[in-house]
Amino acid sequence: MKKLLALIVLLATLVALVGCFGYGEVPTRGVIKGNVYTNEYAAFTFTKPSTWRYYSDEEIAAAMDIAVENLGDKYEEAIKNNPNIYDMMVAHDATGTNISVSYENLRRTLSADISMNKYISIMKRQLSEVEGVTVTFTSDGDEKVKLGENEYTKCTCLTKMYGYSMTQVFYLRKADGYMTIIIVTTAGGHTTAEIEAMFS
Asked: pTM here?
């Protein structure tokens, strides 16, 4: 499971390149109450099944190798000063299915003006260059999905690494100089449609 989590973090941060600086509206941290995660910035809620668990800030900080304070009162500062930062992670440990929500500061990585097609092209190239990882895209941005109040560009791929075989779905939305990135990883037992229904 630790290798699987490391892979998810790796795939989510590969597009962190060096770019210019500046800020739009800064994403705010979502809030978890019981089984429900509410993200006002991204305008959606996610309700987890009772058998799933949300990762603690300590677990997320350890996965990103950052101080846990960056996920608390210093979140706004951290999101301005880091190319990519997580907001939430949730998992069903029995199957390995998990979901992460993160933001990429495009002014620190690529460009706030980058097109979605160019972003996806760079993401695909970088994933293909990871040693020991095989990534095969079955859809590459031609599908749009509404999660909550906003529309996301959906990319799906089959990923193989460390003997694991999993389906990953990237939901991407660019606004305010940031890319909201929702990654759904299923290693068996759950369908994309079931998971999308957990958003409202």
From this structure: 0.88
